Amino acid sequence: MKVKEDLGKGIQFSVLEEDGGREDLFLTNNSQVIKSLINDDFIKLAGINESEYLKRAKLVVYKKFKLDSKGKDQGALLDSFLRAIKVLLRKLWRLRDHNGHFNIGFLLYNINDGIQITSNYYSGIHYSSNGLQQNILLSKQEVEEAVEYSGAILSAGSDRKQGTQLTKGLPKLTVCDYYLQVAIYTRDLAMRIAHYCTCFEALFSNDKTELSHKLSERVAYYISETPEERLDVYKALKSAYAIRSTVVHGGALNAKAESSLISLSVSCDSYLRRVFKYVESGQKADIFSMDGEEFENYFIRLILNYPGSA
After folding, report:
1. 307: Cβ contacts below 8 Å, ≥ 6 apart
2. Is 4:143 a contact under the CB 8 Å cutoff?
3. Distances (CA, A) of 217 to 60, 224, 273, 304
4. How do beta strands 2-3 and 137-138 pair?
5. Which of 128, 232, 248, 266 could crosslink 99 through cysteines, CB 3.0-4.6 Å?
């Protein structure tokens, strides 16, 4: 992933931690700024290979600060920085499909008159919706828009919760975001489509009756402006749901279904992004906080073109 313009010192972004703390970091592609971070102490402790890798990096996130010896331990502090980067990548998805990811972070610090280093590695690769790793070129404006995004994103520390995050009372959009993260780290397109379908279920379904038809119909009406577009969305989601039903029950796809995987995965990714954009614009946003009966009545009226339902 690259950014067209020189970011200089960097674009500042902040993420709130679950404990109320705030992490402020900088994203830069400026080679001089990056090289200034890789000093002799860093090279000695991190190693030449890692140091050279960072010097050649297209984008680097960093933070300079005074380490509070009474605060978090160094490992936990670095972990909070890495989770903040994951949240930024989630926000960036709201703007466009991408495969941006990171793998390792370092914390260089001076304690008890000695220079030490802590490192942490985050596994998992973020794939584009077609299942590929591609060179993504961003604009500075796109990065700034991602930084300013304030929609339904799981908190930076929520992936550390033991057991499950899927507890009663979570907003529909937050549940959808959870499954979305599973999807974008899945390269197998059939399984990725299955996770996308679960995202749509989290948003548009209150029961399991006629699920494939109901889900496809509701999404089509929610994100589409014309009958022709609604039909296209409906057919795509019906096909996606057929694939989901096959793979989650241990079945194998036939040649026709396999040939449609890329187009369906890209479409599902795009449809979800459009849902979030509708919500952020304030259009039809309140339906996801409706109770079950009100939610069902909303879509019945919408689909039957009942006056005042749009």
Report:
1. none
2. no
3. 43, 11, 17, 12
4. parallel
5. 128
Give the separation between CA 250 and CA 148, rounded to whole angstroms: 42
Query: Rounded to two decimals, what is the model's pTM?
Result: 0.87
Residue recorded with tokens 């014309």: 226
Q: Which amino acid is at 86?
A: K
- Identify the bridge partners of residue 137 per DSSP, sorted by sequence position: 2
* pLDDT, tens digit, 9 for 90 and up, residues 244-290: 999 999 999 999 999 999 999 999 999 999 998 888 877 777 888 89
Q: Are strands 22-28 and 137-138 parallel, antiparallel or unpaired?
A: unpaired
Cα–Cα distance measured from residue 184 to residue 127, given in angstroms and rounded to the nearest whole number: 6
69: CB partners within 8 A, 6+ apart? 111
* Calpha distance 90→196 (Å, rounded): 15
* CB proximity list for 220: less than 8 A, separation 6 or greater: 229, 230, 231, 233, 234, 237
